[in-house]
Amino acid sequence: MFKDFYTQRGEYVVISAEQASRFAKGVAGDYNPIHNPDARRFCVPGDLLFVLVLTKFGLSRQMEFRFTNMVGADTPLKFSEADDGTLHVCDESGKGYLQVVRRGDITHDPAVVEAFARCYVAFSGKNFPHYLKPLMEQHGVMFNPKRPLVIYDSMGFSLKRLDGFSPGLTLNHSSLEVNGKRADARLEFSIESAGEAVGVGSKKLVVSGLCDYDADEMAAIVEEFYRLKAAYESA
């Protein structure tokens, strides 16, 4: 699963800028410039780390992911489980990038794990413009168009069961809490399978460098998003 997006080197996982960028665009539909291989502030998508945790440790009924640092290209990462069951993603020096708390039953069924991973990533990749643009417009703020910075802070979900479902995610509620030059965006979602509610979850994003909302600037950013999307899909 997802083996094309990382390289295993002994006990470490290494993700190149090209692998991370292909995952962002091809799997998540995420065209954030920060995931472009030539980006000055390049970082590996948090959703790729999420996928690798599920691949290596399975899917639990309750999981909470907290991202603590951004991962640069070619950083050797160790995925490990502590004595208390907490999962950690750290580099060779011990610097932490992701911490995962999990509870309840676990499944390692590849079909179930991959189905859930793909449906969440497809949902998560729609941060911008689908979810964030309406929120920012509503509150009269936006990120700096010259240095847009949206950070994946945390995510959690709870599932009623793990067997025999073909999950899909739907946004239930979204909110933006503005504090000076930064804002916390919360996206709450439901998880369904064949019309049955099988779980709920939420995601938190931090938007930095806020300025007043400018409709023309935002329109240009959205236009560039769709230009990049069209260019990737036609390549």
UniProtKB/TrEMBL annotation:
InterPro entries recorded: DUF3581
Pfam families found in the cross-reference section: DUF3581
Protein name per the record: DUF3581 domain-containing protein
Organism the protein comes from: Vreelandella maris
